[in-house]
Amino acid sequence: MSKPRKLMIPQDRQERLHYMRRMFPQNPGADLGDDWVGGRAAALKRLHEIDALTYGRNRNFLNGAVTRLSPYLRHGCISLAEVIEHVKSQFGDRGGKLIMQLAWREYWRQVWYLKGDDILSDMETPKVAIGRRPLAEDIRKGKTGLPCMDGFIRDLLQGGYVHNHARLWFAAYVLHWRKTNWREAADWYEANLLDGDKASNHLSWQWVASLFSSKPYYFDKENLARHTGEHYCAGCKAQCPFDDSYENLHDRLFSDTLSVQPVQFPPIRPVLPVVQGLNAFALLVHDEMLSPAHPLLRRPFTKIFIFDDKVYEQWSIHRLQFMADCLSEMPNVEVWVGDTREVLMQREVGRIETQDTPNRELKNVLTPFSPTWHPEPKLVDIEVSAKRLKRFSRYWDKVGPYVLGTVAAPQSADENRALHKPEVSA
Prior knowledge:
Elements: E1 5-7, H1 13-23, H2 40-47, H3 52-58, H4 70-74, H5 80-91, H6 96-115, H7 137-140, H8 147-159, H9 164-177, H10 182-192, H11 198-209, H12 221-228, H13 246-254, E2 280-284, E3 302-307, H14 309-312, H15 317-328, E4 333-337, H16 340-346, E5 349-355, H17 360-366, E6 372-374, H18 392-404, H19 413-419
Parallel strand pairs: 2-3, 2-5, 3-4, 5-6
Antiparallel strand pairs: 1-4
């Protein structure tokens, strides 16, 4: 555990990257590349580069016109409402497909608010037999022998960003072909993503596994080859495990007699005593509100962000460097490293306020400081029932007309599933 100390985030970018590497030598991974710069300024630049029309035509292709906004949305550099309003103002009704995919992020988050730590366990009984094997080292190191999967792992470990379609292919390979424990795989994957969060990441893995969907997601060679432009398949010398019909793949992947009972992974968290005798009041800035435009930053209190070892020790260094970029735009925020409780007590803070979050781990840490939780705005201010939150299609049927200003035409079940494929990195 690091002794509490205040960090001085450099304004020069290269110096900042080196500084974070020195401050966090234990965090794995490659440094943040030049193609990713954290912060609101970079988020707004990407926002104005969005081409919603091209996105609607080719988003499933690896070279498609995806927005690459997910890390900025994850860390609060820009809000989902801002992005959607921009798309509507620039593209009108023609931006509907992008808006619907962006809504997946809000959907996952509302499920997290509702279910809390339950999203870290099997949400439903699996619809097919699934495996519970440990995550293999060849997967962790990107040495599976399959150029496509090793390429996706390389993108994850070196850059922290993977195209959404590649995330689904990779998760399907890990879960269905390798019969891996989804929770271990999801934890490892999230720790290396620039945009990783428990809701979008873990629930997407469960969607692929059939633990939060009506059937498992899997793919064949033709699907991967088509959407990658044969990038991996053209020179591949490996015996392709995906080269078969969907019918044969289904029989091969799901005929094993494996456990089909849901498994629970309850978190173990200590009950922390209430802090007493300290009178200072502070605004706690957490990693979902890293924007100089955040309304809570206008409040006349000491503002503190903490790189807590318990939260961030497994995260890749490029993720921490991305967050440092964000914090460099927020000069009025004190940045510390160490145990959250110890830092706040060293600053004689007895009470805090902050933005609400579905993250129960963070809430557990902050509860002793009598927190005031300021609600974060929903995408639309309407009540959505627990039943509708069981599936995105039901959720979108409810909120879609409010977001788009139109009523969507009904679709068949097969069309509905094809359209409502989860998006975490639009």
